[in-house]
Amino acid sequence: LLSDARNSDQEVRVEALRVLASYGPAAAAAVPGLCAIVEDPVLRRDAFTVYGAIVALGEIGVPARSAIPVLTRIARDRRVDSASQGEALISIDKIHLQDPDPSVRVRAADNLGECGSLVLPSLRRALSDPDEQVRTAVAKAIRKIEDGSKKQGGV
Predict the structure, then answer these.
(1) Which long-range contacts (CB under 8 A, 24 or more apart) does 130-137 make?
(2) Helix (H) or strand (E) holding 120
């Protein structure tokens, strides 16, 4: 799939990245290749490819911890489109939501509560966290997102 993620055809790249993201932590071996895609100056010109690689890193979770410096650079780079910058921040929090340290998971849940309905699947998975404080923070974040959606006429 990583070779398809570098294909000359944008549709092939985006679909390969979508499939990689769907594998979640099972795609851990792809982390170095995904980081290389995000940092590749040629591929970086395609916002859809960059965005797809960032989403995949977030869905991989803790095994993508080594990608946090790359994601941080993306989030701070004004030359990167704002959707990718925002997704980089969300992906960092998704990675932290699976961190072994409960206090890191609580902070990640609090941050994700500010991100909107796209992060609800990650938060809902975290409702089964073994730590009560994490579960409480996750439930609070979900309520915040759902309450915000209702006020805007969604969900």
Answers:
(1) 131/102, 131/105, 133/102, 133/106, 134/102, 134/105, 134/106, 134/109, 137/105, 137/106, 137/109, 137/110
(2) helix 120-125
pLDDT tens digits for 28-56? 999 999 999 999 999 999 999 999 999 99
DSSP 54: H
Give the integer Cα–Cα distance in Å for 24 and 50. Answer: 17
pTM: 0.80
Q: Of all residues in the chain, what percent are helix, strand and coil, respectively (each to 5)?
A: 80, 0, 20
Q: For tokens 């992060």, name the residue.
A: 119
- H-helix or E-strand containing 109? helix 102-112
Return d(Cα 25, Cα 30) in angstroms, integer: 10
Q: What percent of the chain has pLDDT over 90?
A: 77
